[in-house]
Design brief:
Layout (H helix, E strand, L loop, with lengths): L1 H5 L7 H8 L3 H7 L3 H17 E5 L8 E7 H6 L1 H8 L2 H19 L8 H27 L6 H11 L12 E7 L1
Parallel strand pairs: 2-3
Antiparallel strand pairs: 1-2
Helix pairs in contact: 4-7, 7-8
Amino acid sequence: MLLMDEKPYNKITISDIVEKAGIVRQTFYHNYNDKDDVLLEYIRNTFNSELIKIENNSKTRKQDTIVLMLNHGYMKKNRENLKKILSLNSIKSHIIDDIEKFPLSFIENYKDTLSPDDFLICRYKISYQIIGSLKIFFDWFIEDMPFPIDLLVLMINAMNTPREAQYRHIPSIEVRIVE
């Protein structure tokens, strides 16, 4: 990220990275194949530790609701670097792949509690809602946040069909913003 402040990503070399990190080239290649791997690891770690949190509120509510918490404060604070990363097509396609895999491990929690048909519906519903919500949130961010965050959250939550309206026994998704 520091090197991206100095020059465009396509001009950054492995030599630049190892010099900035204070490591030898062999150490770099022991851990990474190329500079994209470094950036992808950074994004994956950031995604999982800072940007997105999921919690299951079934213990605190009557209904089974999955809360997708998006860290708007982190995105605002790191806006320029995140926009640089999200503008790189090679990296963006990997990020989209990661987003599509994101809900799968969470969905496994429902495998033993639902019939096979209901589990499939659950998988589709949760994947659709989580992936769609994340794509909308990131697109809104890339487009320079054209309207207030609370309006975005209202819109996303309105699109996520309430659990009571359809498939009552399958969890619903609720998006919240943390600062």
